Amino acid sequence: MTLSSILRAATIAATLALSTVTFAADIDVNANQNDLAIKGFDTVAYFTDGKAVKGNVNYTATYKNAIYQFASEQNRDLFKQNPEKYAPQYGGYCAFGVTMERKFDTDPTAFKIVDNKLYLNLNADVQKRWVTDIPGFVSAADDNWNGIKSKTDEELESE
């Protein structure tokens, strides 16, 4: 699969995904119509368990006007102590998409922790491309994020 076909597939998938996604009060966080971040997955579990774990509605915390769910009270409390440590980079938008100055939705199971930071990707195919040059893509995304975080993907697409 070529890079252009991966990007084309990612754009199509993101367009379809975003047609059903609305954003939390702060559009710099990827959340659903109920302001739920990471589709209800426990952001702390990525660090403590090394895998994507579905959260529980009984253990929640709010950060940047988005609601995060956790698998346990302990994970919720860890998040509350230091949300910036556990919250996904780029507000939970696709790390590879941010390199292209876009805000794509993510698959919570397509994740990678790099330098103690959580990065999510649109899907496993996009993640395969992203892992080929993580330092380069993170650098590009870091450079782009401040310029795009306050815009919707529709605004970015029309620029």
TrEMBL record:
Residues 1-24 form the signal peptide. It comes from Glaciecola siphonariae. The keyword Signal applies. Residues 44-90 form the YHS domain. Pfam families: YHS. This is YHS domain-containing (Seleno)protein. Keywords: Signal.
